[in-house]
Amino acid sequence: MAMVLLLYSYLSLLSMMNGEVLGIDYTVTNTAATTNGGARFMRDIGDMYTRQIMASSTDFIWSEFHQNSPGDRKPVSSVSLFIDDINGVAYTSNGQIHVSSRYIASYPGDVRNEFTGVLYHEMVHIWQWDGDGQAPGGLIEGIADYIRLRAGYPASHWVQPGQGERWDQGYDVTARFLEYCDQLRNGFVAELNRRMRGAYSNSYFVELLGRSPEQLFQEYRARYGYAY
Asked: pTM here?
């Protein structure tokens, strides 16, 4: 997996140097440059690295979602990222990613690695389908963290496999559950995302894996010794 990500990064860097990233325009704006977090972003992460990860994560997400042709993907022509003086970690809306300079300033570890993981998560929101607004929010966030996990950037505070109370609890809990589902059927998450292009139903789990998400979650917890 590490070699694959390195290849994605190398190809994306070459594309940006030529001013072409598959027709997608990636921009980075630091609106918090005078804050501690904004300064740390410029020092430890930087615009060039950020645009490189935006491009390489796009390639990785398309691959994970098995979106091999433009017709499979959302019609996105540009993605803008802002470093803002806001609370929280990050959020994505209308093709724009907003990352908190306060979070960057306060992060105690390898901030570039953490930023990369956050960016993979937010880039998934740019590209994933949401069932035309019908999919559970926990599933949407879980798919984003699943791709972050697949890319090799899980956060240190994430739960261990089998932990959690509900399959749609979201974020790391649902990401670990989706990893289990994808082990049961290779390509499950990609197919689930494809079906969510225009609608959503829990029956997708039954159709693809033979059991409801609640049943699958019970089996998943039991596998790791966390049976109810």
From this structure: 0.90
